[in-house]
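Aim 2 progress. For TetR family transcriptional regulator, the working sequence is reproduced below.
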Amino acid sequence: MRQAVLAATVDLLASQGMAATTVAAVARAAGVHETSVYRRWKTRENLIFDALAHHSDHALPTPDTGDVRADLTALFTALARYLATPAGTALLHLGTVRGEDDLEEGRRSYWSTRLERAEALVRRGIDRGELATDTDPHLTVEAITGPLLARVLLTGEPLEETLVPRLVDLVLDGARAPRRQGRRQDRPDGS
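Predicted structure tokens for this construct:
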């Protein structure tokens, strides 16, 4: 029953949008009783988060290529593509609603789990010596995720194919010019 309900939820989100994805519509599409859906998920929002979590787990596998740059690029490229789908749009809509008790727990749980998976990629890079030992995995992931979400949610700019590799390079390499040997770097205070 769970698989049928989750699949019906994602299908409805993709074909009809958020407003049409009601518990009654999902139950009809899945061939189950509406009370069964409410008994298991309690709210429409819980159902949608569970369906999107299940769906995105398959759409966003955690890569392990042996290279942190390649892993982060693969994961965030898949995320950018996912965000452009109807399911991704629904996820963003639910993920940005703050202060509604029905959504808060699902939103927090969903994003915490996904961010922890991305942070694991950074930790592997640290363990392999690709990144400095004092690298903050959470901040690194936020630094890549933030611009993606800003593009989609704030500016509506397209997520072109080169964006993710450029973001990963920027975050992993930094934007500071390399120090030249033999020259003293001036501090911002002029000393």
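The domain at 59-174 is CATH 1.10.357.10 (Tetracycline Repressor; domain 2). This observation will guide construct design in the next reporting period.
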